[in-house]
Structures are given as structure tokens and as C-alpha cells.
Amino acid sequence: MEKTIAVLPGDGIGPEVTSAAVKVLKLIARRYNHSFKLSYGLIGGAAIDALGNPFPEETADACQASDAVLLGAVGGPKWDANASGNRPENGLLAIRKHFGLFANLRPVKAVPALLGASPLKEEKASDVDLMIVRELTGGLYFGEPKHRTHEAAVDTLSYSREEIERIVDKAFELARVRRGKVTSVDKANVLETSRLWREVVEEKKAAYPDVRVEHQLVDSCAMKLITDPAAFDVVVTENMFGDILSDEASVITGSLGMLPSASIRSDGFGLYEPVHGSGPDIAGKGIANPAAAILSAAMMLRYSFGMDTEAAAIEEAVQTVLEDGFRTADVAEEGTRALSTEEWTERILEQLDSEAVSD
Ligand code: NAD
Ligand code: IPM
Ligand code: MN
């Protein structure tokens, strides 16, 4: 297959982990006879520095001309004092909104080899296999009015019925091909948007009789994610709750550096990026865990290109390399040597190259 991929490395550890994911994509292309054309673009702080805009038109055009987008991370202390519309994070919000990427899929699966790296007890973490379905283009992030003066600030939490319907449908569809359970997370004891959200879920469930539905308030959900994370299958929630719960859930896997994500719409086009940020505390050291970026590339193959075999090969290689004891610093066991980003990526490439291609 021939595909064009826009690559937006971004800031901090973004370029370090993106370069690892690109190496993996190139190897997959060679091994499975695909042609991936890569077109590089600027986003976030790097784009502000070069072009004065965190999501420049050139970047939008490159993405528009591509089948999917691979993104690293944006942000960093250098731009933290920037005016509200000109922060690196605005670039990320703009690209999501511009392409209508309303569904953010954040899978959280326990990695057997890393159970020791999780702060949770092994018996709590071992069976975890959940998917957070985060609404990505609405809610507090985008609601109007949004402004501030010296004395006050306003953000608006608003959702239309239509915005809720499409993300809830996505969650039900995913649950159908997983373990058949949806947990809808809201704050319906306080928020009007949550009461509408709950109403839509109740209406929708009739169309999916094979899926079990439960409602859970976000505060107790945060607690249950730690006390009984294996009880969850698909978790569907609004933008801000999903942002917070997904970082929380990442600890189950041992590190934020393990968590990939897909931001998609209904036609197959998607943006793939790690859940983590630009890691200012480790940027430039060459020690970031590239697994989240590499697994995001695997999600791209699966969700945008329909390349299930290739995606599974990458996921298996990640498991195998970890099982063989090769770790980056964030998940390394005490007293063992941690590999650099590049060394760990080399292990993945060797592993992928040694596996037989089955079709
Ligand atoms: P962060 O995710 O960058 O880092 C949190 C902690 O996790 C840090 O200690 C970091 O070293 C560690 N970490 C993150 N990714 C890692 C990896 N791959 N390997 C090893 N360790 C890793 O979050 P933060 O520090 O709160 O935010 C830093 C900047 O990133 C901010 O400017 C924020 O806005 C931005 N951010 C961007 C994205 C994105 O681009 N998608 C996501 C979150 C935060
Ligand atoms: C994420 C990040 C972003 C978000 C920020 C950087 C805008 O935290 O992708 O999880 O809040 O969506
Ligand atoms: Mn986040």
C-alpha cells in the first residue's frame, strides 16, 4: 500500500520519540512491501519560533495532503509565558479542531513484563485492559465565552446533543468488539452538561443491546481506576475528565511513556500521538521512553490504514523486548542498566526484523 504520513515532531522529547517511531514505520514498510511517504511539518513551540504560529498553514496543508498524522509532543518552559492564543498547546488544540478529530482513543493495557514497575499491586494491575474514549473537540477546552481580565477569568463547559451522540456511538462500537461494557463517566450530580450526557447514553443504549452500560461519577471513577482497574472495559467521557483520567490510568502500565493514543473522526483520517507531553525534565538527554510513540504508530497502521498484522507485529515486538529485560530509565528495575531512547529503539528494530512476515 502507498500512504502519505505527515510527521510533526514538536518540542522537547517529541522529536526524540518521533524519530524512533519513524524508524519503526520505515522498517515496517520495507518488511511488508508498503510505501510510506513522510512529509515533515512544524507544530507547537518549534512552529512559534520559526513562523510565529503554533499551527501554521503549511502544516495544515501537509496534514490535509496526508492519510494520517504522527505527532510527538508540544510545549515547554520556553513558551510558558506566551500570550494565551500563542502557546504551543494551542497548536495541538487547533489541529484537533481543524480536522474534526472528535474521538480520542487511549488504550491502557497492563504489560506483563512491567508489572513490577507499576505502583499498583501486581494482582490489581495484571488484568487491566481498558480503553478511554475521550471526547476531544468540545467541552471546557473550546467552549465560548472564554476570556480573562486581571480580576476574573471565564471558561465555558458546553456540549451539544450531537457532539455527545457521536462520541457515545464510538464507545458503543468499540465495546462491541471488546468485552461489551461501557462505563460512562460524568458529574451528573452537579453539571448540566453531564445530565445531558447521561440522557444521551441512556437513549443510545437501546441500539446496542449486546453492550452493558454503567454510569459513574468522575470523582469515584478516579478512585476505582486505582482500586479496581480491571473492572473497566470502555470508559467514555468528556474532554477534560478524559485528559485527567488517562494520565492517572497510565501508572497502571508503569509509565506515562508507555501510553499511545489515536485521535480520529469517522473517515479513517487520524492523528496519532503519545499521551505524554514534551518531558522538559528529560528533554535533550536521549533517555525518553519511545514506546508510546511507537505504539501510536501501530495504532495508525490499525485505525487509519487497516494494517492489523503490521500493527500487531509492532505491539508484539514491544512486549518481547520488555520481556527480554530491555528497559528505558522510566521503567528500568533498580540496579539494572537503562537503555537510551536510541538503544531501546534498536532492540525493537532487531526484534521486528527477526520476526517472520506471515502474509
Ligand atoms: P509530561 O507528560 O511532559 O511529563 C510528565 C512526567 O512524565 C515527567 O516527569 C516526564 O519526564 C515523564 N515522561 C513523560 N513522557 C515520558 C517518556 N516518553 N519517557 C519517560 N518519561 C516520560 O507532562 P508535563 O511535565 O506536565 O508537561 C510538560 C509540557 O508538555 C507542558 O508544556 C504541557 O503543556 C505539554 N504537554 C503536551 C502534550 C502533548 O503534546 N500531547 C501532552 C501533555 C503535556
Ligand atoms: C493531552 C495534553 C493536551 C490536552 C494539552 C497539551 C493541550 O495534555 O494530549 O493529553 O490537554 O489535551
Ligand atoms: Mn493530557
UniProtKB/TrEMBL annotation:
Pathways per UniProt: Amino-acid biosynthesis; L-leucine biosynthesis; L-leucine from 3-methyl-2-oxobutanoate: step 3/4
Quote the EC number. 1.1.1.85
Q: Which residues bind NAD(+)?
A: 76-89
The question of whether DNA damage is a record keyword is answered with no
Q: What is its main location?
A: cytoplasm
| Subcellular location per the Swiss-Prot or TrEMBL entry | Cytoplasm
Keywords tagged on the record: Amino-acid biosynthesis, Branched-chain amino acid biosynthesis, Cytoplasm, Leucine biosynthesis, Magnesium, Manganese, Metal-binding, NAD, Oxidoreductase
Q: Which cofactor does it need?
A: Mg(2+); Mn(2+)
GO molecular function ontology, one term from the record: NAD binding
InterPro entries according to UniProt: IsoCit/isopropylmalate_DH_CS, IsoPropMal-DH-like_dom, Isopropylmalate_DH
Report if keyword Protein transport is assigned. no
- Which EC main class describes this enzyme? oxidoreductase
Q: Where does Mg(2+) bind?
A: 219, 243, 247
Q: Which GO terms describe its cellular component?
A: cytosol
The entry marks the following residues as binding substrate, namely 96, 106, 134, 219
Q: Please give the start and end residues of each transmembrane region.
A: none
The UniProt entry's GO biological process terms, in alphabetical order, are: L-leucine biosynthetic process
User: What catalytic activity is recorded?
Assistant: (2R,3S)-3-isopropylmalate + NAD(+) = 4-methyl-2-oxopentanoate + CO2 + NADH
- Cofactor note from UniProt? Binds 1 Mg(2+) or Mn(2+) ion per subunit.
Gene3D superfamilies, A to Z: Isopropylmalate Dehydrogenase
Q: Which SUPFAM superfamilies does the UniProt entry name for this protein? A: Isocitrate/Isopropylmalate dehydrogenase-like (SSF53659)
Query: What HAMAP family does the entry give?
Result: LeuB_type1 (MF_01033)
**Function comment:** Catalyzes the oxidation of 3-carboxy-2-hydroxy-4-methylpentanoate (3-isopropylmalate) to 3-carboxy-4-methyl-2-oxopentanoate. The product decarboxylates to 4-methyl-2 oxopentanoate.
Q: Which family does it belong to?
A: Belongs to the isocitrate and isopropylmalate dehydrogenases family. LeuB type 1 subfamily.
Q: Which PANTHER family match?
A: 3-ISOPROPYLMALATE DEHYDROGENASE
What is the designated name of this protein?
3-isopropylmalate dehydrogenase
**Organism this protein belongs to:** Edaphobacillus lindanitolerans
Lineage in the entry? Bacteria, Bacillati, Bacillota, Bacilli, Bacillales
